Every structure is written in structure tokens, then in C-alpha cells.
Amino acid sequence: RKPAARHYYQKRTLARLFPYINKKFASLTRSVHNDGSVLKKLKQSALIAKMQKQQLICVYLSLIVLVSAKMVAGQVVKVGPCPSGIETVQDFDAEAYLGVWYEYSKYPFVFEAGGKCVQAEYGALTSDSVSVLNSQLSTFNEKSSISGVATIVGPGKLSVRFNGVASLAGSANYWVLGTDYDNYAVVYSCKNLIIAHAETVWILTRERDPSEDIVREAQDVLVSQGVSLDPMIVTDQSGCPDSK
Fold first, then answer.
1. GO CC annotation: what is one (predicted)?
2. Where is 162: in which H helix or E strand?
3. Are 30 and 111 in the same domain?
């Protein structure tokens, strides 16, 4: 049968089987054609439903990001995956990197909230791993510390795992973006979430109170790689027990 004839027989069959539906549909069709407001209302209803669906999706995704961000300890969270093209120190010398480093500044980091005199001490373990001991003073001048192991996984790239911390939050990538070993080190970490990523940045120095030139040199490393300095917070290194 031709398409027109086939449609005619299909319509007649439906009309016989469902006379009530056919009648209501015909009535609604006439109303839509005769009254533009009905069509307008239908369009508005469809638009509202679409907007509500989009809002629910946004709320759902926002909750995912918030939960994921909490799991990675409150670093700076941005939409999208971790940036590509971040370059680390290719001729990284782990032995020269050992020793005490003082935290000059960082991205907000919940584990260090309210802390001062933050420092990290790295010691030799094996040819491809170093010991890690991070310590700080609380607002009540109480010392706290956490230890772990950093394994070298690539040039200027380490994977750090802290003792006594759940595996989900206990490990992190530790990328050395720049260092002269004697004055400063710039460390970067990024973790992909579901629709976003969380970044942490540290500027470490060998002295608690580094010169402006040293700080500027470290900051230039971040700027050259497109890493924002805006979230950086300067760490309080005053009144520390071993201050000079």
C-alpha cells in the first residue's frame, strides 16, 4: 500500500479501537489550532520541565564535586581535568633534595589549617624512595607531625603515602616543578575528581625567612607553567622554636 493509504487504515483502526482517545486528541488538536495560548502554555511547560531537569543535574554535579573535594582535603578545586603539560625537573637529584624545607606559602590545605612553623624533612631510605616527616605548630603552640614515604616514580615525580591515613586520602602525587636545592623548591600536586580537579601548590625554602629574590624566583616557576599565584597563602614562620 501507498504511505497515504497505510496511514489512513492505521488511523481508522486506532479510531475503532480507541474512540475515546481519538476523540480527545482531535479535540485537543482543534484547541491548539484555535487558541494560540494553549500552544504557548505547552511550550512554557516543556521549557520549565527542561530547566528543572537542568537544575537537578547541576545540583547533583555540584554535590559530587563538593563531596569529592572534601575527600581530597580541601585543595583548590577547578572544573575539568588536571592540566596537561605541567613539566617537572627532568634531572632531579633526590640526594641533593634531602634535608629540611620550610613552607613559605601554599594553596589552602585543610590538614594545615591554623598551623604555623610548617616544615618538611626528607631523609634517605633506598635508591628510589625517601622518608617524609611533616610537622607544624597549632594555634595553641602544640607540635604535631605525620610521617610517610615518598617513592620516586619519574623525573621530578614522587608518590607520597602517609602512615596511618586511609589509602584514599593517604597518597598523593608530589611533583617538583623547580628547585635549586639550596634555596627554594616548588611542589605541585593535582588529583582528578569526577568533573573537576583539585590542585595543591607549595613553595618551600631552606630558610624560614627567605629573601624576596628567592621567593620571586620560585613564583616565576609557577607563572611560567600557567599555575595561578592567586590562591597562595603565606605560612606564618614567626616565633618558631628553632628560629634564628
1. cytoplasm
2. strand 157-162
3. no
Domain co-membership, 126 together with 104? yes
Residue 37: what pLDDT? 61
Residues 17 and 134 in one domain: no
What is the grid cell recorded at 81?
Answer: 581535568
| Number of compact structural domains in the chain | 2
Q: What is the pLDDT of residue 114?
A: 72
Within a domain: residue 239? no
What grid cell was written down for 128? 628510589
Cell readout for 18 is 480507541
What is the predicted pLDDT for the residue at 117? 95
pTM of the entire predicted model: 0.68
CA atoms within 13 A on the CB side of 227: 31
- Cell numbers 563538593 correspond to 66
Q: Pull the grid cell for residue 21.
A: 482517545
Tell which phi-psi region holds residue 94, choosing left (phi > 0), alpha (psi between -120 and 50) or beta. Answer: alpha
Residue written as grid cell 615518598: 150
Cβ proximity of 156 and 89 under 8 Å: yes
Which range marks the domain in which residue 22 is found?
A: 3-70
Name the phi and psi angles at 231, rounded to 5.
Answer: -75, -5
Q: Which three cell numbers stand for residue 64?
A: 559530587
- Mean pLDDT, 10 residues at a time, over the chain (244 residues)? 42 44 52 55 60 42 36 66 94 97 90 82 93 91 91 95 65 89 97 88 97 98 96 94 64
Q: Residue 211 is part of a domain; what is its CATH number?
A: 2.40.128.20
Q: Is residue 241 part of a domain?
A: no
Same domain, 146 and 63: no
Asked if residue 225 and residue 141 are part of one domain, the reply reads: yes
